[in-house]
Amino acid sequence: MLDTGPLGAITGEASPVSDNSSPIRSMTGERSEYPNLGTVPPRPTDLTTEAQRQQAMDRLAQDRAASRRTREQTEAIQVPEPLPTPMAVPPRPDLRAGRS
Fold it and tell me: How would DSSP label each residue in 41-91?
């Protein structure tokens, strides 16, 4: 969104909230320089191995196959005889003023 704000973007008036002349707003406005590379966290050490990833992929494939079998079994269930027809809707009551 431009610094003119939602209403200012439509009307062209400046925003009463921001004094920033740039059309792009930063998140906080505090840090405009590049980050210090000394603050970069160390590389993660708890990564999974190729064998662990393959085992997880195999489990997912087995889950998918079991899900497909369950779906096929569910779709193969035959619907019993048709349900009985519902009762007919009763006629509207004759409601007129003065009649009981």
Answer: PPPPS-PPPHHHHHHHHHHHHHHHHHHHHHHHHHHTPPP-SPPPPPPPPPP
